[in-house]
Structure formats: structure tokens, C-alpha cells
TrEMBL record:
<keyword id="KW-0811">Translocation</keyword>
<dbReference type="GO" id="GO:0005789">
    <property type="term" value="C:endoplasmic reticulum membrane"/>
</dbReference>
<keyword id="KW-0812">Transmembrane</keyword>
<feature type="transmembrane region" description="Helical">
    <location>
        <begin position="118"/>
        <end position="142"/>
    </location>
</feature>
<dbReference type="Pfam" id="PF03798">
    <property type="entry name" value="TRAM_LAG1_CLN8"/>
</dbReference>
<dbReference type="GO" id="GO:0045048">
    <property type="term" value="P:protein insertion into ER membrane"/>
</dbReference>
<dbReference type="GO" id="GO:0006616">
    <property type="term" value="P:SRP-dependent cotranslational protein targeting to membrane, translocation"/>
</dbReference>
<feature type="domain" description="TLC">
    <location>
        <begin position="112"/>
        <end position="308"/>
    </location>
</feature>
<comment type="similarity">
    <text>Belongs to the TRAM family.</text>
</comment>
<feature type="transmembrane region" description="Helical">
    <location>
        <begin position="232"/>
        <end position="256"/>
    </location>
</feature>
<keyword id="KW-0653">Protein transport</keyword>
<dbReference type="InterPro" id="IPR006634">
    <property type="entry name" value="TLC-dom"/>
</dbReference>
<feature type="transmembrane region" description="Helical">
    <location>
        <begin position="78"/>
        <end position="97"/>
    </location>
</feature>
<protein>
    <submittedName>
        <fullName>Translocation associated membrane protein 2</fullName>
    </submittedName>
</protein>
<feature type="region of interest" description="Disordered">
    <location>
        <begin position="335"/>
        <end position="357"/>
    </location>
</feature>
<feature type="transmembrane region" description="Helical">
    <location>
        <begin position="276"/>
        <end position="298"/>
    </location>
</feature>
<keyword id="KW-0813">Transport</keyword>
Length: 357
């Protein structure tokens, strides 16, 4: 974070300088944009970075509502919130995770996984609360038909579009963080798979955030105490239910809802892709992604159980080492004092007289 005390200095704009000060650099850029709001000449450009663009006033029965379209200017807004996310990432890392990890004395591999889970716990918890608020306030929970009615949904409410922009900003910021956090080369393919899973189908259900939050919270408790695996059992139960819920929601909205809409034409300019071929491609993509996740889950669970039973069987095969009988040491009656054996009453025992031959 900004204004931290450094015990070691690096050459200006060197690789180590950028890695150790990337949050401070992002803070300076964000501060420049915020200062631009204070002047009339630069205020219009500053708002381009901060607020969603392409607002449209749509008349309703009572008044007018403001909705938002999408376009290339949204990339500028996403870039601004990428720097915001980098700053928040550094704050959580330095003031929360680093202080906890120092007390746990973790190895290098566990320390890296602890930092990863700690960051994702904060993100998924925030996403769960925010997503639940959007679902309730926008009426998606009380009226599920709004998911496919009035398609194509090219005009979004403010909080829906802002939620999408922040989600994209977070997962795009994770790409340079692989370099800033010095992630090992062996871990990069797994991290890229995880990031792309959220970037390709980037509209994720609320239950998926809840499942991921439970998983990474279980990892944090496991790193603190390796005997604590109760949350993993709860996550395993929720994981399968989540996969089934996502498949059901996709089939309901795409397979049945959009299939009954009258407007079934391919018109990319208006954002209309409601054709049989497009619906089948999306359903196959969703089913393939959920099947792949379920296969990885089952494979990891079987491997975990196999390792557990192998460990238990090796413990049973190891014979118990027989205990050696304690050697009896015959001691003289009484106690020793200054090298002389004393009797129980404190007097020296009488020595036996040897008979002369």
C-alpha cells in the first residue's frame, strides 16, 4: 500500500522495483484520476474512467429509468477498476494475510496456497453479498421469467452492469498478479484455468460464489490446523448440488425460456443470438464445463480417499515394537550418604566378621 516503510531500495523502474511497488504505482494512477474530478476541464474525462458509459433514458408508466448499453468505452472503466482491485489486493495481503501467515509458520508451498485462498475468500464473500443484493432488488428472485423475457437484454440497470464490470476487472487483474506474486511455473496452468473459467462464462450464479467461498474457507482452516477437515465435507456436499442447480437453470432459461420467444433471429447488431444453433452451443458449453468440474471433483475425492486408506493400512501393518522388560536392580536396604550405606534408623549397617581359617 502507499506510504509504506521500505527496508530495501531497488533501482527505479527495475523489475524488482515494479514488483514490490506495483500497488503504490496503481495508487498514484487512481489518485490522478480522482484529482481530475476537481477541474472542469478534466472532469468529463475522469468520469469516463469511474462511471459506466452509454446510459439511455427509457420511459416507464410512472417515470423514466436509466439503463446502460455496452461499448468500447467500457474497457477504460474496466482498466480503472483493475488498478482499484490491485490496490485492494495489496491491502488485504499486507495487513491481513501476512500477519496471519507469520503466526502459522507455513512452508513455502502452503504459504502460497494460503495467500491464494485468503484473497479468494474476501472476493467470493463480497460477490455473494453483492450478487444476492442485485438478485433481490432487481426482482430476479421473485420473477425468474425476467431472465429470458424481453430478450435481447442489451440495456442493463446500473448495478447489474457495474457488477459485471467489477467482476471482469477482478479476474483480469489476476493475470498480472501472477507476475507480481511470483507464482511458480508449475502453478500457472492451474491458475489460468481457474481465471478463464470465470472470464468465458463471466455471468456466474450466486450459488457458485457460495461454493467457492466455502472451499477456500475450508483450506484456510486446514492450513491453521491440519486435523480440521469438517468444512471440506460440507463443501463436498454443496459442490454436487451447485452443479445440478446450474445445469437446471441453464436448461430452464436457454432450453425452454428462449425457445418459446417469438423473436428468434440472428442479428448481432441488436445483440440477438436466439437461434437453435446458438442455444445448443451455449447449452453444450455449460454442460461440458460442469461435467469437467464434476470429473475433477470426483477424481480428487477418490485420490484423497485412496491416500487416506493407504495411510491407515500402513499404520496397521507396522508391528508394535515389544517393550524390553525392566532390569531388576538389587539395592541394599537403607540409603546412601556420602558414599556410606546407612540403615533405616540412620546408623551404619554392621559389617560381617570374617572367620579366620
Amino acid at each position: 500500500m502507499a506510504f509504506r516503510r521500505r527496508t530495501k531500495s531497488y533501482p527505479l523502474f527495475s523489475q524488482e522495483f515494479v514488483i514490490h511497488n506495483h500497488a503504490d504505482i496503481g495508487f498514484c494512477l487512481v489518485l490522478c484520476v480522482l484529482i481530475g474530478l476537481m477541474f472542469e476541464v478534466t472532469a468529463k474525462t475522469a468520469f469516463l474512467f469511474i462511471l459506466p458509459q452509454y446510459n439511455i433514458s427509457m420511459p416507464t408508466a410512472d417515470s423514466e429509468t436509466v439503463h446502460y448499453h455496452y461499448g468500447p468505452k467500457d474497457l477504460v472503466t474496466i482498466l480503472f477498476y483493475i488498478f482499484i482491485t490491485i490496490i485492494l489486493h495489496a491491502v488485504v495481503q499486507e495487513y491481513i494475510l501476512d500477519k496471519i501467515s507469520k503466526r502459522l509458520h507455513l512452508s513455502k508451498v502452503k504459504h502460497s496456497k494460503f495467500n491464494e485462498s485468503g484473497q479468494l475468500v474476501v472476493f467470493h464473500l463480497t460477490s455473494v453479498i453483492w450478487c444476492f443484493y442485485v438478485v433481490v432488488t432487481e426482482g430476479y428472485l421473485t420473477n425468474p421469467r425476467s431472465l429470458w423475457e424481453d430478450y435481447p437484454h442489451v440495456h442493463l440497470p446500473f448495478q447489474v452492469k457495474f457488477f459485471y464490470l467489477c467482476q471482469l476487472a477482478y479476474w483480469l487483474h489476476a493475470l498480472p498478479e501472477l507476475y507480481f506474486q511470483k507464482v511458480r511455473k508449475e502453478e500457472i496452468p492451474r491458475q489460468l484455468q481457474y481465471i478463464c473459467l470465470y472470464l468465458v462464462p463471466w455471468s456466474q450464479p450466486d450459488c457458485l460464489y457460495s461454493t467457492e467461498f466455502l472451499f477456500h474457507m475450508a483450506r484456510l482452516f486446514y492450513f491453521a490446523d491440519e486435523n480440521n477437515e469438517k468444512l471440506f465435507s460440507a463443501w463436498a456436499a454443496v459442490f454436487g448440488v451447485t452443479r445440478l442447480f446450474i445445469l437446471t437453470l441453464a436448461v430452464l432459461a436457454i432450453g425452454f425460456g428462449l425457445a418459446r420467444m417469438e423473436n428468434q433471429a440472428f442479428d448481432p447488431e441488436k445483440g440477438n443470438f436466439n437461434t437453435l444453433f446458438c442455444r445448443l452451443c451455449v447449452l453444450l458449453l455449460v454442460c461440458a464445463a460442469q461435467a469437467w468440474l464434476m470429473w475433477r471433483f470426483i477424481h480428487s475425492q477418490l485420490r484423497h480417499w485412496r491416500e487416506y486408506w493407504n495411510e491407515q493400512s500402513t499404520k496397521r501393518r507396522v508391528p508394535a515394537t515389544p517393550r524390553l522388560p525392566a532390569r531388576l536392580i538389587k539395592r541394599e536396604s537403607g540409603y546412601h550418604e556420602n558414599g556410606v550405606v546407612k540403615a533405616e534408623n540412620g546408623t551404619s549397617p554392621r559389617t560381617k566378621k570374617l572367620k579366620s581359617p
